[in-house]
Design goal:
The complex is a heterodimer of chains A (145) and B (149). By secondary structure, chain A is mainly beta. Chain A has no helices and 12 strands. Classes of the chains: A mainly beta (145), B mainly beta (149).
């Protein structure tokens, strides 16, 4: 009898999302917290060198600093894959435009990475008039499964 | 014959948070709900005890209400993930519009974690980020860990 032991190598990267005010929606800065395997942060993006199945999880918390004309501001949060919007992860919306109001968007999803060197990040898109906001905290994690 | 073995065998554990009104930071006591028949995981003290290294999938629903409130006008609470007592990940944040007692919010979080050592323990920590002095962890909040590999 041959018993083939299951073995695996850990590939994971945990990143914080940099905090601070942002005048216009865009791509947040990733700050690497911990990492195992060959996943890295390069030029603001998580780089996934190997093909395979990965689980992505995290959240981003955003507060209003100054408010646009919209009384119900809204930001869409997208996954960026290789520089292009790939998936809308969620929408952060406010029922009031009072400065200081914070809201979060949590996400979990899997990707099947078919090509090597894929880059991943988030993008916040102004869908209804949020010109000034502050990223209060957030994480963006990728783990091979 | 080649026998491929899996370490998984549908191991999981479900826990509830004990309802409590307490100042933060707060590591909730976990109450064992159910575990799969062959699960090696158990609740020990306030933590989930994970005897075996591996890759685990963790789902959390936290339903937080304001009990009595002090501090800022827009209370916030951060939910941190603890692995072996060390904060490894900030998994979510709960923000309130006002300090009205009774306001409550629910967040759902999912994440993976790897353990490379035996006898790890896992829990959450609720941390006051901007002035929530008292919270109420409502019944119904749960914590589920499933072994993937």
């Amino acid at each position: 009898m041959i018993i083939k032991e299951y073995s695996r190598s850990i590939k994971e990267i945990f990143c914080n999302i940099a905090t601070g005010s942002i005048a216009t929606p865009g791509v947040p800065t990733l700050v690497q917290v911990s990492q195992k395997g060959n996943l890295t942060v390069s030029a603001g993006y998580i780089v996934v060198p190997d093909t395979g199945l990965y689980l992505i999880s995290g959240h981003i918390s955003v507060a209003l600093t100054a408010v646009s004309a919209s009384t119900r501001p809204r930001l869409d949060c997208f996954l960026i894959k290789n520089g292009a919007n790939d998936l809308k992860l969620g929408t952060i919306s406010w029922s009031s435009n009072a400065a200081g109001l914070g809201r979060s968007c949590a996400f979990t999803f899997a990707i099947n990475n078919a090509t090597s060197g894929t880059t991943l990040n988030l993008r916040l898109v102004d869908s209804l008039g949020v010109p000034n906001f502050s990223v209060e905290n957030g994480v963006f994690n990728v783990t091979a499964i | 014959m080649i026998l491929l073995t899996s370490e998984s065998n549908l191991e999981y554990i479900n826990c509830s948070f004990s309802a409590n009104v307490t100042p933060v930071p707060y590591i909730p006591a976990l109450i064992l709900g159910t575990a799969s028949p062959n699960s090696s995981m158990a609740v020990s003290g306030t933590n989930v005890l994970i005897p075996n290294p591996g890759l685990y999938y963790c789902q959390t629903m936290a339903h937080i209400g304001l009990a009595t409130v002090g501090g800022v006008a827009l209370p916030e609470l951060e939910i941190l993930f603890l692995l072996n007592g060390i904060q490894t990940n900030k998994i979510n944040r709960i923000a309130f519009n006002s300090t009205t007692v009774g306001l409550n919010k629910r967040v759902i979080s999912t994440q993976l974690f790897n353990t490379t050592v035996s006898n790890s323990n896992v829990n959450l920590n609720f941390v006051n980020s901007t002035g929530v002095t008292n919270i109420n962890v409502l019944l119904g909040a749960y914590f589920r860990i499933t072994k993937l590999k």
